[in-house]
Amino acid sequence: MRILFVASESYPLVKTGGLGDVAYSLPHALQEQGADVRMLLPGYRELLQELDEVRILGWLHIQGSGRSHDVRVLEATHPAFSVKLLIADCQELYDRPGNPYLHPDGYDWPDNAERYTVFSRLAAMLSMDLLGLDWRAEVVHCHDWQTGLVPAFLASEPDRPRTVFTIHNLAYGGHFPHDEFMKLHLPGYWWSGEGVEFYGGFSMLKAGLVYADSITTVSPTYADEICTAQFGYGMQGVLQANRHKLTGILNGIDTQLWNPSIDPYIKAHYNAARRNPGKRINKQALLKSFSVEAGDEFLEKPLIGMVCRFVEQKGIDLVAEAIPTLMKETQASFVIIGAGDHVHEERLLKLQKQYPDRLFVYIGYSEELAHLVEAGADMFLMPSRFEPCGLNQMYSLHYGTPPIVNHTGGLADTVVDTTPKTLNAQTANGFVMQEPSVTALIDAVLRAIDVYANKRSWAKLLRTGMQSDLGWKNSALRYLDLYQHLLA
Ligand code: ADP
Ligand code: GLC
């Protein structure tokens, strides 16, 4: 089956969050099942610098915002990619450093509508082989608002590929004003409540929802949640109307990249059968990266880790609020890695000054520290207000670092709260809060610390998590099933 995979980021070339992880692992998992997958990415500056061999396949002339662009289509190789890599190379739109969506000063690039419309137009054209490469996609699989227009461009084409649109996060809608719609020369008949119009502007995410043959999202619980006003970001009506074509398929994790028995970023390797001394050495190494020389006494006390984008979604504010109480009532220490909204960054740095011996904060993006936290912390905190899937709780399970999570989205689908009953049944693998509040968070952390003190129960919990099958294979098969179904 020929699949064109279209995304705005993909590890290790460009990644801002879990979308980058999925857009790397899923196409490879599909290929492993025998699919013929090509991956299309925009040619951001740092991405271009990392490519190995590059070949120019041709040029397409594409309508932008009040102007048009000659976009060069490149075929490239990179040691991490075994799927074929295609790059949309257009200097004036993508050749910019840093975060793909944001100006270095933190605001959205003002021409994002144009950047991703051109990218989507190109994807649609390539999938129909308008460049004459002798390869036509049977299925085009798009991800999040940046690629939402692809199904819309294809919808009116005769003899077109089938389209799948995956929602990774409904909070980002790709909303733009009407005059942008006009400047982009988008088809006038799209402009209606049944089309892309959304509260007076237009939404690229909505375009994906309306025009794709199938909508998926990254966990079954999130598929239900987004049909409600609480989680729907205004799209709940559209989603309810399209419920028949909406499925939740849980993400997997890449067990080559996230695996404590081979992970090159961590200090000592370990596995479910033999966790120590590996886990302890990693804990020491993690603390050392914050200049703490931890002796036995310190190492006995629980270390709680957190790695995330600093945005409200992740409940980072709840953690900041809970820290003073947790410092008073427990002997735990905390390692928090992340970047995002400056208010959260500043608040955590201030707290770090208040508790310099027990709170360690790193502001920034560090793949290495992210892995070391999974391996070195005793527990992983993820009190998200909503979480379409969440990968970090699955990495944590795999690394023997029980996650403490809120009951929502993919967290609800992957983490089983520890109670005497679930411990007995060997299903317990973490700690679940029933609501995203400071009290629920404190309560869950206190419960986790209680169980941590009981070595036998703790070992049981870790084993359950580490032995569970979290790889991509099952999900890849479900996507293939869905593609088959669309083609039938
Ligand atoms: P989301 O996609 O909403 O950010 P996920 O849990 O699905 O949440 O995925 C987050 C991914 O991004 C994980 O691979 C995580 O390790 C990584 N990540 C987030 N923040 C950082 C950071 N500051 N440094 C390194 N990796 C990070
Ligand atoms: C989004 C979601 C996250 C999910 C990731 C990959 O960024 O916030 O929950 O795991 O996409 O699907």
Automatic annotation (TrEMBL):
Keywords: Glycogen biosynthesis, Glycosyltransferase, Transferase. The gene is gs. Residues 298-451 form the Glycosyl transferase family domain. The keyword Protease does not apply. Pathway: Glycan biosynthesis; glycogen biosynthesis. This is Glycogen synthase. Belongs to the glycosyltransferase 1 family. Bacterial/plant glycogen synthase subfamily. Synthesizes alpha-1,4-glucan chains using ADP-glucose. PANTHER family: ALPHA AMYLASE DOMAIN-CONTAINING PROTEIN, GRANULE-BOUND STARCH SYNTHASE 1, CHLOROPLASTIC/AMYLOPLASTIC. Its EC number is 2.4.1.21. It catalyses: [(1->4)-alpha-D-glucosyl](n) + ADP-alpha-D-glucose = [(1->4)-alpha-D-glucosyl](n+1) + ADP + H(+). It is an enzyme of class 2 (transferase).
